[in-house]
Design a protein that fits this description.
The protein is of the alpha+beta class. The chain has a domain of 152 residues: endopeptidase fold (from Nostoc punctiforme), CATH 3.90.1720.10. Helix content is 33%, strand content 18%. It is globular, with a radius of gyration of 20 Å. It starts with a helix and ends in a 9-residue tail after the last strand.
Length: 219
């Protein structure tokens, strides 16, 4: 073969192989997502910035690793219930995602956490009120609950008083006013909770992969 043709083919072969390589993920990896879902996401992102300033509104956890995005499964709380989604469909919703992994000293917690999530939380109603004390669950809560059940002496993700107020004010976002009026429930200002942004900054995890950078994420 002509050596000039070889010089052309070799870089093409490298590019093709790189594009086909599947990133290696593990059960227990946490996917942090910038959903861009309008006022609800904007309100969540405004009160807590994430890792390196990322604006994050959702998270999910890998409960099964398959051979491709189509058979790798994440469990998440979104819509009406705690449910499962393929990695392919998760990324198709928004590719602005990065992946966190528990550091080695906390890896022992993952099997029990996943068992609890799959056995006791899957199918539970979504927590529209964001109340940690009831039997409904929002996205951050299922991950927190799973790991807390695995070892309640560890506090990998800190609970903090929630705020629904616009930054620098004592007034809630109009979205939350309308939202809680529709639910017939007072805004739970100051109640303990957690969100994807705060979770992504936990010293217990390492960021192992970035797809497209979420809005605000620095180099």
């Amino acid at each position: 073969m002509n050596r000039y043709i070889l010089l052309i083919l070799i870089p093409c072969f490298i590019i093709i192989n790189q594009s086909c390589t599947q990133q290696s993920f593990e059960v227990g990896d946490i996917f942090f997502q910038d959903l861009d879902c309008g006022p609800p996401c904007e309100a969540i992102e405004a009160v807590t910035s994430g890792y390196q300033g990322a604006q994050l509104s959702h998270c999910a956890i890998i409960t099964h690793v398959g051979s491709s995005q189509h058979d790798t499964i994440l469990t998440e709380a979104i819509g009406a219930t705690v449910t499962e989604i393929t990695l392919h469909d998760f990324l198709n919703r928004s590719n602005k995602v990065f992946v966190g992994r528990l550091k080695e000293e906390y890896q022992y917690m993952i099997p029990d956490a996943i068992t609890h999530i799959q056995t006791n939380l899957k199918g539970k109603p979504y927590d529209y009120i964001f109340d940690l004390t009831d039997d409904t669950y929002y996205c951050s809560e299922i991950i927190y609950e799973g790991l807390k059940t695995a070892d309640d002496t560890q506090e990998l993700f800190a609970l903090n008083p929630m705020t629904f107020n616009a930054p620098g004010t004592d007034s809630p976002f109009i979205h939350w006013v309308d939202y809680y009026e529709e639910l017939g429930h007072p805004i739970p200002e100051g109640e303990l909770g957690l969100n994807p942004g705060g979770m992504s900054q936990s010293p217990a995890i390492a960021i192992v992969y970035v797809y497209e950078k979420p809005t605000g994420m620095k180099e």
